[in-house]
Amino acid sequence: MLSYLRKRIISSALPLLVVIVGVFALARLTGNPASLYLPLNATEQMRADFTARHGLDQPLLVQMADYFGGVLQLDFGTSLRTGESAATMALRAFPATLQLAATTMVLAILLAVIVGSWAALKPNGIADRISSFVSMAAASIPDFWLAIVGIWIFAITLGWVPTSGVTGAAAWVLPIGTLVMRPFGALVQVVRGAMVSALSEPYIKLARSKGASQTRVVTHHALRNASAPALTVAGDLTVGLVNGAVVVETIFGWPGIGKLMIDSILQRDFAVLQACVLLTAVAIFVLNIVIDLLYALLDPRVRPASAVSRARKARPAPAPVETAPANA
Q: How many other CB atoms are found less than 10 A from the CB of residue 262?
């Protein structure tokens, strides 16, 4: 298992490095921050002093080397807007995104397991048709459109929930309701397909012949074997939530890492933007490793071959069978 984990870390480290370098280079293409932070009547000398003070007058490779040197020392630079440590700002905003993503995925998984298992009990029945329609519609609705419609109906027209902020439980309703639709729709289809396949296996028929109830058959037998593909899809959707909650956080004013990224891009706050991207990339990197390990634990077929070979070597060799000579 350790060799499997080591290979996964090495294979995932290269995309992480590419993302960090790409964001570093693309951020510089947005222009000189001096145009935003200095007054319109600033002289060329003032612009040159501002650029030199923040190290932006150096060649791009020199800036990149300085940045990676600071990262190795856990120094991500200082915000141009506030003068605060970029790492502190990113770490302060990231828990809000994690809370939103974790709550959304827990709710989406619970609802998908219930609806998907219910639909799989009678394939092509009324429940199956209704769940298929609802799940496909939920997976197809754009997040930004659903967020705007939700604000218009439930916040402005009915006044049930606030339009933005994080104060009170009501402020969580619209952001979670918006984000939960897409993973719920995708997971229902996956759980339904996996459960239909599992419920047709011989061991399910054996369990039913022994008098096991429908609830026990679904929860103790079929759902366990159907969880592996659902776990993979749920992991990918969780990564998408952590990485793609930018629109929802911006619309609802959620103080997460996505909103901080947007603000940093608009303000050309390079240090904060790079810290946010690096923190998000590391979180996704760790999440992918955890998902791979959980999947390997659930499905022995994906475990590394070395573990299987060691298990085979540990088995005692069968004793040789002695045969009588042919001329005896």
A: 15
